[in-house]
Every structure is written in structure tokens, then in C-alpha cells.
Specification:
By secondary structure, this protein is of the alpha/beta class. The protein has one domain: 3-Layer(aba) Sandwich (UDP-N-acetylmuramoyl-L-alanine:D-glutamate ligase). It is 41% helix and 16% strand. It has 11 helices and 10 strands. The strands form 3 sheets. It has a 6-stranded mixed β-sheet. Strands 1-2 form a two-stranded parallel sheet. The protein has a two-stranded antiparallel ribbon with strand order 3-4.
């Protein structure tokens, strides 16, 4: 037994959807956000939300996470029991009847994030798949970020993956830890080093039956089509929390621009690399500077 004091030094906006939106907005994308931001919206989100084209709070709840960052990783302590309030009934009212189908129809990319912390998110995604995505007039890429599914029951993970397999144009984004969690669950060979990332991504794509799987690790990122790029590693990051979301932002921008996979991965790595060095979402100039230094 030991006692440690935790001192909160700052309160910042966060959550995958907010972080991804911030990263995309910094890169110049027009972002429309549907997220659990609280009612009233928590003031910590204000610096991000003012940069977005439109904001649609969902329900009255928001999550709160205490992030403990270390030189070799981070520990996320989440207080999110209230997020169980987001279920299919709330989604029916707060999404389907509040402009979400129309927003998806005009989007160049749709992002679904943070399945793990929302107990009813599989039912919500199933509703959106049947009532929105299947009815879109054109093929819109859907970027999915589960967020560490290791704490969820394997049966829940399998049920969620079955819903993903029914959606069109899904890119499943994972970090290496998340990729190996799914590999163990699905009975496919995992990966221990970055050189094996493309093969691991390809095995997961086949097992999950989505359009593509993208994996980002400490020094490289890969796509299930075989693409592998090196990222800008730093031994002294300013901030780690939110780096994966900024990778997703760069990758998403590349997908919106219909760039080839190597360039999508390079954008993701540059966006993430700039963020961990500066602690802020990268704009186009910062991304270009990181890419030029590679």
C-alpha cells in the first residue's frame, strides 16, 4: 500500500472527438462536431469549439479524465460513468432529429470515436449505420477510433466489430497496443515491432472485414494496403495525451483530399509529431516543417 498525492495543474479540453476536431480545424478543415460536451457546455471546451464551423452538444453529460504523463507513456484515469446516458434513444433525438443525417450527407469524411467509454455505443453505431450511413447518396469515408478496447468484454468488442463490418468505407484507426488487443481477440498473429505493422494491419482488415486498417506506433505508421512510413520521433515530448487524435486529424485530412495511403500516413505522422513537440494542434505550416525535416 502506498499513498500518492495528485495535483491537477491545468484543466484542458479533451476527449477524442474534441481533440480530432481541434486537429482538423488547425489544418484548415471545416468541422461540424456532434459530441457530449455537457449542458450547459463545459467552459473548458470553449477554445476548441470557437474554431469549428458548427457544434451540436449531445445530451447533458461530459466525461472527465485525469491524465498522468511520464517519460515512457501515460496513465489515463477516466470518470465517465455518466456517459452511459448516451444510448440509442438519446441518439434518435439528439442526432437523427437534429441535423446529423444532413451533416453526414454533405461531409467529405465522417469520424466515429471513443467506443470504449460509452457502454451503449454499439447500439448507437448500429442505429447510425442503418438510418444514416446506408442511405447516404455517395460513398463517404468513415474513420473509426475505438480507444483502447482492452477493458471491455470480448463479446462487446465482437458485437461492435460486426456493426463496423456492415458500414461502408470504414477506416479503422488503431495504435499498436489496440491493434494487438484486437489481434488476440480475433485469433490472428500480432506484431511486436514497427516493421511488421503493414502485415498486422492487413490481417486485421481481413478479420474485421472493413475497407482498411491504419496502425500508428511510436516511430512508424502503416496501412493495410502495405504502406509504411516513418514518423518524426522525439525523446522529449511536450505532451502525449491527444497525440493519436492529431495523427487521426492528419490522416483524415489526407483521406478528404483523396491522397494515396503513403501521403495520408505522412500527414498523420507530421500532425502528431508537431503536436507532441509543441503541445498544440499543428497548422499547415507546422506540418510542412516537420515533413521537411524528415
Amino acid at each position: 500500500m502506498s499513498l500518492r498525492e495528485v495535483v491537477v495543474t491545468r484543466t484542458e479540453p479533451g476527449g477524442c472527438a474534441v481533440n480530432l476536431s481541434d486537429g482538423l480545424a488547425a489544418l484548415g478543415a471545416r468541422v461540424e462536431l456532434f459530441a457530449t460536451l455537457g449542458a450547459p457546455v463545459h467552459p473548458a471546451f470553449a477554445p476548441v469549439l470557437q474554431r469549428l464551423a458548427a457544434v451540436h452538444p449531445v445530451g447533458a453529460m461530459h466525461g472527465r479524465t485525469t491524465a498522468l504523463e511520464f517519460g515512457d507513456g501515460k496513465l489515463m484515469l477516466a470518470a465517465v460513468a455518466q456517459l452511459a446516458g448516451l444510448d440509442a434513444d438519446l441518439a434518435q433525438r439528439a442526432l437523427l432529429q437534429a441535423g446529423y443525417p444532413e451533416a453526414c450527407a454533405r461531409a467529405d469524411l465522417i469520424a466515429l470515436t471513443n467506443w470504449t467509454l460509452y457502454p451503449h455505443m454499439t447500439a448507437v453505431w448500429e442505429l447510425l449505420s442503418d438510418r444514416v450511413f446506408a442511405r447516404l447518396p455517395r460513398r463517404v469515408p468513415i474513420l473509426v477510433d475505438l480507444v483502447d478496447p482492452g477493458g471491455r468484454d470480448p463479446a462487446d468488442v465482437r458485437a461492435m466489430l460486426a456493426v463496423l463490418a456492415r458500414m461502408p468505407a470504414v477506416s479503422l484507426g488503431l495504435n499498436l497496443n489496440e491493434a494487438n488487443i484486437l489481434a488476440r481477440l480475433l485469433g490472428v498473429a500480432g506484431g511486436a515491432d514497427d516493421a511488421g505493422l503493414p502485415g498486422l494491419a492487413a490481417r486485421l482488415r481481413a478479420a474485421v472485414a472493413v475497407d482498411e486498417v491504419v496502425i500508428h506506433a511510436l516511430r512508424h505508421a502503416a496501412c493495410s494496403d502495405g504502406a509504411l512510413v516513418a514518423g518524426p520521433y522525439t525523446a522529449a515530448p511536450v505532451r502525449l495525451t491527444g497525440a493519436g487524435d492529431r495523427f487521426n486529424a492528419g490522416y483524415a485530412l489526407g483521406a478528404m483530399l483523396r491522397l494515396p495511403s503513403e501521403q495520408r500516413l505522412a500527414l498523420g505522422c507530421a500532425s502528431s509529431g508537431s503536436y507532441v513537440r509543441s503541445g498544440a494542434s499543428a497548422d499547415a505550416e507546422a506540418v510542412a516543417a516537420i515533413a521537411a525535416a524528415q
